[in-house]
């Protein structure tokens, strides 16, 4: 019975024909009153997992979300669908708060979004006691994990929901979770009896590429100009300063870029975020402070110009590309300096030994991904405990790197580090070591009499890029380490000696030199048209987009809240002649059909008007 009700809601309200993946099972489980822990990649369709049960069950669904800045958009999107939704957070004045509270008490809300700190206030808890709750949805549930970078202490208080409302089903959702994080979430939210729904984390439409960093801003610009001209994208940087300078660089080169980091005022952040969501083709240059909960479906690329700190964070950030299922890029540029810098940051980070060791392990996993000669996606999913076969849509699959025997080269590097390490009080970084190996005479080599060392010039056979690759890989594999002196001085490790003594053969990844030079990244320049339409459908599609733009503007919502590109594409293809035909198109629910049906039919029949 409720099975068909759920499907009915999916069709009528959301305009979708069928559930995807685990959605049906999850929805059913929650409708039947069960607790659930849902792990689905970004873009997998988590929202429906609580929205549909909230519409089927009696009462109001309470959605706990840390994303105050997005609540208005979320509620607007639901209102467009005809769902009775509202939110309570600190941005509202008391009059609106009163109204929302009254609506809740009157049973006039299907969904109510609340920030966790708000939920835990006495006033809010008492309010909830007096109303009728259909379910609790705990969105972004990984915020409860103390090891993650999105940790929110307020989330720890949410285990109380279970004690206070033992009969109300709870559904916790997240796009990021290794097995360890998953059990941490279950434990901290007291989800002991919850069923776990773990979807495939694969996002086949995202093309993964990791390139060697040289002039990174130029490489980034090349990527955008050659493959993503006019596309919306996110560029992640590690520091605020880097965000600022990169955004400025892109703007100076004709790219519509905006900065976003925690150092900007709340107002500027909100404004930039809103422009990113509402305008076409904006590139957001940001720290990881940006992006959680951004459900913009048409982000075409996510670029990292600094090495992310963990695979988990990286996967979540890249997952923000291509939520609409159309082709998208995840592009990361990384180099020797990233490894040195991050190792140093870990050494200097506050926290105990256990904490630093954990950071070190996370970095190692990230480096392993960067240096792999195996399919990137195989590696990524393995991190989440999932197995797939080579994907055919990553740089390694498309342009397999060669492996070469780097044992002798490694021995040369390690000997040079060893020789220099005996000079007390001296600090030599990677650049100097490479100069010595290549026999390049510089002020430093002359002043320090390094040209008389036996290792001087023993590596003239390899280019500087190649040597950087060797050093980087030695660092990545723990065969070299960065001294804790704060200067990035290289030092040997226990493992180094095994290689020096010739007891271990070392296979390395060959740097594709020409490509790295030209800055073309993975080399594939062909841009697949994202909206693939026959010529006769194009004017209709464009007319629909223009119409959508007007409506979105007058409603003050992002265009995709009115209709997704994918829906407009289908309309342009089908060219429906009646309301009934239009209603069969995926993404056109009852409310939108009623509100916009006539205008769409008019636009379709005379696109030029
Ligand atoms: P998540 O929160 O997991 O990142 P969303 O809930 O935002 O993902 O869903 C991603 C996109 O997929 C949305 O645009 C949504 O409308 C669409 N979607 C979700 N479920 C379905 C479905 N069963 N059929 C068609 N489209 C769906
Ligand atoms: Zn692959």
From TrEMBL:
<keyword id="KW-0234">DNA repair</keyword>
<dbReference type="GO" id="GO:0006310">
    <property type="term" value="P:DNA recombination"/>
</dbReference>
<keyword id="KW-0227">DNA damage</keyword>
<dbReference type="InterPro" id="IPR044876">
    <property type="entry name" value="HRDC_dom_sf"/>
</dbReference>
<dbReference type="GO" id="GO:0005737">
    <property type="term" value="C:cytoplasm"/>
</dbReference>
<dbReference type="GO" id="GO:0006260">
    <property type="term" value="P:DNA replication"/>
</dbReference>
<dbReference type="Pfam" id="PF16124">
    <property type="entry name" value="RecQ_Zn_bind"/>
</dbReference>
<dbReference type="GO" id="GO:0046872">
    <property type="term" value="F:metal ion binding"/>
</dbReference>
<dbReference type="InterPro" id="IPR004589">
    <property type="entry name" value="DNA_helicase_ATP-dep_RecQ"/>
</dbReference>
<feature type="domain" description="Helicase C-terminal">
    <location>
        <begin position="216"/>
        <end position="371"/>
    </location>
</feature>
<dbReference type="InterPro" id="IPR036388">
    <property type="entry name" value="WH-like_DNA-bd_sf"/>
</dbReference>
<dbReference type="InterPro" id="IPR032284">
    <property type="entry name" value="RecQ_Zn-bd"/>
</dbReference>
<dbReference type="GO" id="GO:0016787">
    <property type="term" value="F:hydrolase activity"/>
</dbReference>
<feature type="domain" description="HRDC">
    <location>
        <begin position="534"/>
        <end position="609"/>
    </location>
</feature>
<dbReference type="GO" id="GO:0003677">
    <property type="term" value="F:DNA binding"/>
</dbReference>
<dbReference type="GO" id="GO:0006281">
    <property type="term" value="P:DNA repair"/>
</dbReference>
<keyword id="KW-0378">Hydrolase</keyword>
<keyword id="KW-0238">DNA-binding</keyword>
<comment type="similarity">
    <text>Belongs to the helicase family. RecQ subfamily.</text>
</comment>
<dbReference type="InterPro" id="IPR006293">
    <property type="entry name" value="DNA_helicase_ATP-dep_RecQ_bac"/>
</dbReference>
<protein>
    <recommendedName>
        <fullName>DNA helicase RecQ</fullName>
        <ecNumber>5.6.2.4</ecNumber>
    </recommendedName>
</protein>
<dbReference type="InterPro" id="IPR001650">
    <property type="entry name" value="Helicase_C-like"/>
</dbReference>
<keyword id="KW-0862">Zinc</keyword>
<keyword id="KW-0347">Helicase</keyword>
<feature type="domain" description="Helicase ATP-binding">
    <location>
        <begin position="27"/>
        <end position="195"/>
    </location>
</feature>
<dbReference type="Pfam" id="PF00270">
    <property type="entry name" value="DEAD"/>
</dbReference>
<dbReference type="InterPro" id="IPR027417">
    <property type="entry name" value="P-loop_NTPase"/>
</dbReference>
<keyword id="KW-0479">Metal-binding</keyword>
<keyword id="KW-0067">ATP-binding</keyword>
<dbReference type="InterPro" id="IPR010997">
    <property type="entry name" value="HRDC-like_sf"/>
</dbReference>
<dbReference type="Pfam" id="PF09382">
    <property type="entry name" value="RQC"/>
</dbReference>
<dbReference type="InterPro" id="IPR018982">
    <property type="entry name" value="RQC_domain"/>
</dbReference>
<keyword id="KW-0413">Isomerase</keyword>
<dbReference type="GO" id="GO:0009432">
    <property type="term" value="P:SOS response"/>
</dbReference>
<dbReference type="Pfam" id="PF00271">
    <property type="entry name" value="Helicase_C"/>
</dbReference>
<dbReference type="GO" id="GO:0005524">
    <property type="term" value="F:ATP binding"/>
</dbReference>
<dbReference type="InterPro" id="IPR011545">
    <property type="entry name" value="DEAD/DEAH_box_helicase_dom"/>
</dbReference>
<dbReference type="GO" id="GO:0030894">
    <property type="term" value="C:replisome"/>
</dbReference>
<dbReference type="GO" id="GO:0043590">
    <property type="term" value="C:bacterial nucleoid"/>
</dbReference>
<keyword id="KW-0233">DNA recombination</keyword>
<dbReference type="InterPro" id="IPR002121">
    <property type="entry name" value="HRDC_dom"/>
</dbReference>
<dbReference type="InterPro" id="IPR014001">
    <property type="entry name" value="Helicase_ATP-bd"/>
</dbReference>
């Amino acid at each position: 019975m409720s099975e068909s009700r759920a499907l009915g809601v999916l069709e009528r309200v959301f305009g979708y024909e069928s559930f995807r993946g685990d959605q049906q099972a999850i929805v059913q489980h929650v409708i039947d009153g069960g607790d659930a822990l849902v792990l689905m990649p970004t873009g997998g369709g988590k929202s429906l997992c609580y929205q549909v049960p909230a519409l089927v069950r009696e009462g109001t669904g309470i959605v706990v979300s840390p994303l105050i800045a997005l609540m208005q958009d979320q509620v607007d999107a639901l209102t467009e669908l005809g769902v009775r939704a509202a939110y309570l957070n600190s941005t509202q004045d008391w009059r609106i708060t009163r109204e929302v509270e009254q609506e809740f008490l009157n049973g006039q809300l299907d969904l109510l979004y609340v920030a966790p700190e708000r939920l835990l206030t006495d006033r809010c808890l008492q309010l909830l006691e007096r109303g009728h709750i259909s379910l609790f949805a705990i969105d972004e549930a990984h915020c409860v994990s103390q090891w993650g970078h999105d940790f929110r202490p307020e989330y720890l208080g949410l285990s109380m929901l279970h004690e206070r409302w033992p009969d109300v089903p709870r559904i916790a959702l997240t796009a990021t979770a290794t097995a360890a994080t998953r059990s941490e979430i279950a434990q901290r939210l007291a989800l002991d009896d919850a069923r776990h729904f773990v979807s495939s984390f694969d996002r086949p439409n995202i093309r993964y590429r990791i390139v060697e960093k040289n002039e990174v801003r130029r490489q980034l610009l090349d990527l955008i100009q050659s493959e993503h001209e006019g596309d919306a994208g996110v560029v992640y940087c590690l520091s605020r300063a880097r965000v600022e300078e990169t955004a400025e660089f892109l703007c100076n080169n004709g790219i519509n870029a905006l900065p976003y980091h925690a150092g900007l005022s709340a107002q500027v952040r909100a404004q930039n975020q809103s422009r990113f969501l509402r305008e076409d083709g904006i590139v957001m240059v940001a720290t990881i402070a940006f992006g959680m909960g951004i459900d913009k479906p048409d982000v075409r690329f996510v670029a990292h110009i600094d090495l992310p700190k963990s695979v988990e964070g990286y996967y979540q950030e890249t997952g923000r590309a291509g939520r609409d299922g159309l082709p998208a890029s995840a592009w990361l540029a990384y180099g020797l300096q990233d490894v040195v810098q991050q190792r140093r940051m870990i050494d200097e980070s506050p926290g105990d030994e256990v904490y630093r060791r954990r950071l070190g392990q996370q970095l190692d996993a990230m480096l392993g991904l960067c240096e792999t000669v195996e399919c990137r996606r195989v590696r990524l999913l393995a991190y989440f405990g999932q197995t797939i076969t080579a994907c055919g849509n990553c740089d390694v699959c498309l342009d397999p790197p060669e492996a070469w025997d780097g044992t002798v080269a490694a021995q040369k590097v390690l000997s040079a580090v060893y020789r220099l390490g005996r000079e007390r009080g001296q600090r030599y970084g990677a650049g100097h070591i490479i100069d010595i190996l290549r026999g390049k005479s510089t002020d430093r080599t002359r002043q320090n009499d390094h040209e008389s060392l036996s290792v001087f010039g023993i590596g003239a056979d390899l280019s500087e890029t190649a040597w950087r690759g060797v050093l980087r890989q030695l660092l990545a594999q723990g065969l070299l380490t960065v001294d804790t002196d704060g200067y990035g001085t290289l030092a040997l490790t226990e493992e180094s000696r095994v290689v020096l003594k010739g007891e271990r053969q070392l296979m390395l990844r060959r740097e594709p030199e020409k490509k790295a030079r030209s800055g073309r990244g993975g080399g594939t320049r062909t841009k697949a048209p994202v909206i693939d339409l026959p010529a006769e459908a194009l004017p209709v599609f464009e007319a629909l987009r223009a119409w959508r733009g007007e409506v979105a503007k007058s409603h003050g919502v992002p265009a995709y809240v009115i209709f997704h590109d994918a829906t407009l594409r289908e309309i342009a293809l089908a060219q429906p002649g009646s309301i009934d035909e239009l209603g069969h198109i995926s993404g056109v629910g009852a409310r939108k059909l009623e509100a916009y049906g006539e205008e769409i039919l008019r636009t379709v029949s005379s696109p030029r008007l």
